[in-house]
Amino acid sequence: MKNTAEVVIVGAGIIGCSTAYYLAKRGVSVLVLEGDKSIGNGASSRNGGGVRQSGRDPRELPLMMYGVKNIWPHLSEELGVDCEYHQDGNLRLGKTPKHLEILKKLADSASACGVGVTMIDGKQVREINPYLSDEVIGASWCPTDGHANPLTTTLGFYVAARRLGVHFISGDKVVRLRKIKGQLRQAITESGAVYEGDTIMVAAGYASRFLAQTVGIDVPMKDIIIEALVTEAEPHMFDQMLGTAEADFYGHQTKHGSFVFGGDCGLEGFTIDPVGKPNSKTNYSMTAPAICRGIMKYFPDLQDAKIVRTWAGVEDQCADKVPVLGTVEEVPGMILACGFTGHGFGIGPAVGNQLAMLITEKKTDIDLSALHYDRFKAKI
Asked: Is the dihedral of CA 89, 92, 97, 102 positive or negative?
């Protein structure tokens, strides 16, 4: 079995798969290691599919803008799969004056970075989406935002990468990294297998923290349980991506007519499994009902929609809520790509594109310095 490559990537979510694809396009040999038996079974398949610029931290916004302009519009054609990308706008909804204050700050921040985000009142909101209730008194509106299908997009990158010769090994979890003569060179799995490369990229979600610790690096992250639901197919209602001022609710209608809605009840972090460990992928009985109550207040017409399934997953929330990307000064040969804090899917293709450039050319088109690990160093 092949156990060496120029680049070894730990994690086969959208970040790992897209980076592998763009590296392979550049002629680099790549080996991707995935602990789960299924590709993309972490956050990459457990999210709402938002492809948005609005509501983002200015430090990561240039990456998202790059992706919206240069990658997402032609991604389905490039990968040979239907990513179900819709660029029909994003409404971030507000019900109270406090909500509007939050939205105004986010809109002003995005506008300062060159994104077309405006504030609109309740009447204008319902002109865009007439199904919203009168409880919505305003929103931020970004017409260049949208949504896509996380499953088909992640799978598309995986299949395209394999076509280009990338080798994937799944079902054998990486548990340790190893340096040789000061350079990170090896990833070691539960079975004892050793995989070696000139560059090791860690893109394993929350597990990235524990892997990085094996070579003395601690990325300040915590795991947050997230949950979403899917309804039966309904007649077409709207194409926008939706969110809220406090990010407690999001959703969209899919190409097939079903609705994907996510949210929380505020108590997910207190759940435990039967042996007392954090319950990472098990639904919490209170969350789906809480999401449904919110949906019915926003969309009264959906009160009779039937839920097909719900799912839960883990969000790798970074201390300052933006990802950690790029090289690590203390560990030559390491690339970090983690801590996406629940908004890694939409930015994923741009991250993969730029990290592939960083690995091969030692530079990027988008300045990643504000996202480097060294931002957590003690200030002297």
From this structure: negative
Instruction: Tell the residue number behind the tokens 């938002």, with chain if given.
Output: 50
User: Burial level of 77, CB count in 10 A (0-12/13-18/19+)?
Assistant: exposed
Q: How many CB atoms lie within 10 A of CB 273?
A: 11
Q: What is the pTM of this model?
A: 0.94
Contact by Cβ (8 Å): 277, 185: no
Mind listing the pLDDT tens digit for each residue in 161-175? Answer: 999 999 999 999 999
Q: CA–CA separation, 308 vs 233, rounded Å?
A: 9
Mean pLDDT computed over 293-313? 89
Strands 194-202 and 4-10 come out as parallel
Determine the Cα–Cα distance for residues 229 and 307; give it in Å rounded to an integer: 7
Euclidean distance between CA atoms 186 and 199, whole angstroms: 9
265 contacts 290 by C-beta, under 8 angstroms: yes
Cα 196 to Cα 177: distance, rounded to the nearest angstrom: 10
